[in-house]
Write a structure and sequence with these properties.
By secondary structure, this protein is of the alpha+beta class. Helix content is 29%, strand content 21%. One of its GO terms (cellular component) is Golgi membrane.
Length: 522
């Protein structure tokens, strides 16, 4: 007698086993394809380092260590983490403590000019493997380029006279180049790429007045609206930007936007006129402040120099409730003085001339349009008025004239010689021989002399750091300007708290500094 009911389960088990077998075959094929690459990586990490070993030099009181002793030691001496300090100048500079010092006869001091500055054992083999297979990613190509430029910049440091760089550096400002006012008309602004230079930045009380006319709205295609099938993706747009930029704050990248003021006359997604405020540093935008016609709070912590952050203006989607006749009669009866509240329309109109005044107050910027206060934007940490050395105006607007008044007449302290205080008090202690409780690595840009000096004077003077239980070091890459690198080298030699990384400083490569901190702390 046949058991017909048992046939389907057997066939299902049969098909399931075939399916699992097929998955196993595919997995083996995948592993076999990746196995050669795995072997290359293993051989790279376990290979002998005699071919690519860096001839390191002792710095200060520390001693060299054999690069073949351990993996950590070899990685620490890799190109991305290797320091480029001078033997003679870096007496107090930090060096990772060694556990197995060499004998006296094995220590052969060399000049930095004699040290071959190339990739370390592991990094060198990996980079050669990538180049051989032509499999460099965008980040790896960027790192390779930064490494080459960094080596070139370091070689040029010795050619720069340090005294001359301190006195005649382009970082130094000239007092006579700081006028109290600057003006420009529309044609001059267009010829200057929509940028007006403010030689010495701004100060509290400085004001910038812009006279212009917004363009009539034009159509723009928005893919997001097209997907939602709204009007074929076409919208009417009329907006412009007024930006204070830090032209001297960074090199080789877009200047930070210390203030980004963006009036959108036709509105945005809200379809209401909007004025947006924000800041941007190294391609990272902060939290925007949007004013859309609704008044902001009048609490003390929300005010900026006594002004509201956002004033009220008429909106076509909100109708103010009228006061009842009974309430109005009662207020007149008790004799309470009542001031009528004035509500103005949005101050910018397409095709109509406007006068916009941007004033720097004590706690923030204040924007007046047509003689009335419209918005205020508080200063944000990390930006100073001295840094605002450029005014950019772009977008749907015809600028007729610009006037900047009450500007500072003395140059701010861009010069390192005015910032660096060569005092024994701020010097860092050498690395201790005993284990430490905490290591702090501080990411720092090459030209941030004032910021590093501020850190030295504050929390780096804590008892824990002074007792060597906690160690803090700055990790700094090289600058495109040779005179900055010369001053940086002198700063590192004197204070002894800077680890110089031999590649050109770029924000996209900040991960290399992080890796350097990890290896140095290890």
């Amino acid at each position: 007698m046949k058991r017909t009911k048992s046939d389907p389960p057997n066939s299902r088990r049969f098909r399931l086993s075939h399916f699992l077998f097929g998955i196993g075959v595919l997995y083996l094929l995948f592993v076999s394809c990746k196995f050669p690459q795995f072997l290359r990586i293993v051989s790279t990490l376990s290979g002998d380092g005699s071919e690519d070993r860096l001839e390191g030099a002792a710095v200060g009181d520390s001693e060299d260590s054999d690069l073949s002793k351990s993996f950590v030691s070899s990685v620490y001496k890799d190109a991305f983490h290797r320091r480029l300090e001078d033997n003679r100048d870096q007496e107090g500079a930090p060096l990772r403590p060694n556990t197995e010092p060499k004998k006296e006869e094995e220590r052969l001091p060399e000049s930095p000019k004699q040290i071959p500055l190339r990739y370390g054992r592991i990094t060198g083999k990996i980079m050669r493997e990538y180049k051989r297979t032509n499999d460099l990613s965008v980040l790896e190509r960027m790192a390779d380029e930064a490494w080459i430029l960094g080596l070139k910049a370091w070689k040029e440091v010795d050619k720069v006279d340090e005294k001359g760089s301190m006195k005649n550096s382009v970082l130094d400002g000239k007092p006579e180049s700081c006028p109290s006012w600057v003006s420009m008309n529309g044609d001059e602004l267009i010829k200057g790429d929509s940028l007006m230079f403010l030689p010495c930045g701004l100060a509290a009380g400085s004001s910038i007045t812009v006279v212009g006319t917004p363009h009539h709205a034009h159509k723009e295609y928005v893919p997001q609206l097209a997907k939602m099938k709204r009007g074929g993706g076409l919208v009417l747009v009329s907006q412009f930007m007024v930006e204070l930029q830090g032209l001297k704050s960074v090199d080789g990248e877009d200047p930070p936007k210390i203030l980004h003021l963006n009036p959108r006359i036709r509105g945005d997604w809200s379809r209401q006129p909007v004025i947006e405020h924000n800041t941007c540093y190294r391609m990272h935008w902060g939290t925007s402040q949007r004013c859309d016609g609704l008044p902001s709070g009048d609490e003390e912590e929300m005010l900026v120099d006594g002004y509201r952050r956002c004033e009220k203006w008429l909106r076509n989607d909100i109708i103010d409730s009228k006061e009842s006749k009974t309430t109005s009669w009662f207020k007149r009866f008790i004799g309470r003085e009542q001031k009528p509240e004035m509500t103005w329309p949005f101050p910018l109109v397409e095709g109509r001339m406007f006068v916009l005044t941007l004033r720097a107050g004590v706690d923030g910027y204040h924007i007046n349009i047509g003689g009335r206060h419209v918005t205020s934007f508080p200063y944000r940490t990390g930006f100073t008025l001295e840094d605002a050395t450029g005014l950019a105006i772009k977008g749907d607007v015809d600028v007729h004239s610009i006037y900047a008044t009450s500007l500072p007449t003395s140059h701010p302290s861009f010069s390192p010689q005015r910032v660096l205080e060569m005092s024994e008090t701020w010097k860092a202690s050498p690395l201790p021989k005993h284990p430490i409780k905490l290591f702090i690595g501080v990411l720092s840009a090459s030209n941030h002399f004032a910021e590093r000096m501020a850190v030295r004077k504050t929390w780096m003077q804590s008892a824990a750091i002074k007792s060597s239980d906690v160690v803090a070091r700055f990790f700094v890459a090289l600058n495109p300007r040779a005179e900055v690198n010369a001053v940086l080298k002198k700063e590192a030699a004197y204070f002894g708290d800077i680890v110089i990384l031999p590649f050109m400083d770029r924000y996209e490569l900040v991960v290399l500094k992080t890796v350097g901190i990890s290896e140095f702390g290890g």
